[in-house]
Amino acid sequence: MTHRRRLRSFWNRVDSGGIHQAPREWQSWLSDTGSLTQQIERAISKKLEVLVLNDGRQDLNSDESRYFHFKIKRCRIREVLLCANGEALVMARSIIPTPSLSGSNQSVLRLGTKPLGAVLFAKSRTSTKKKALRKIAFLKKRDCFWRIYQKKYPSLATPVWSRRTLYKLKGHPLLVSEVFLPALLNY
């Protein structure tokens, strides 16, 4: 009999005590259930600048693919930096399966330099208010995700805290990973 080897993930659920591994100054950023964009804009008292690093179809790695039950290999992946005064505060990677872009969700296709949170947390959308699956990780140089992010943002500090949330947008899944950069603590 053959056994399927279970993939290990270094992501820890926030609601299972994983948040207590993070330093106190990062805990509120990692555990907040609302819009990260709105939370940062309140902290900096101005609108965030969004710098799009990449927006196109890419292959998922096995850790990301597990969120979609390994049924999806390629997705639209959007990687951005959220900045204030030209300084990067957060790097975000959004994985949007093709079925999630259909119907009234097509507005996600036309984001441009608008943050995804503006669509996910719009007052007219109710599906994000349900409990979303949220996990956190402490990314180090040896982790594959740190290397992915470091290629897109070469001055990425190490180690960094990150959170990942599986949202539902009108019943369709979207996976959003956010890497919190040290400059965020200045606010």
Automatic annotation (TrEMBL):
Pathway: Cofactor biosynthesis; ubiquinone biosynthesis. GO terms for cellular component: cytosol. Substrate binds at residues 78, 116, 178. SUPFAM superfamilies: Chorismate lyase-like (SSF64288). It catalyses: chorismate = 4-hydroxybenzoate + pyruvate. Keywords: Cytoplasm, Lyase, Pyruvate, Ubiquinone biosynthesis. Its EC number is 4.1.3.40. PANTHER family: CHORISMATE PYRUVATE-LYASE (PTHR38683:SF1). Removes the pyruvyl group from chorismate, with concomitant aromatization of the ring, to provide 4-hydroxybenzoate (4HB) for the ubiquinone pathway. This is Probable chorismate pyruvate-lyase. It comes from Polynucleobacter sphagniphilus.
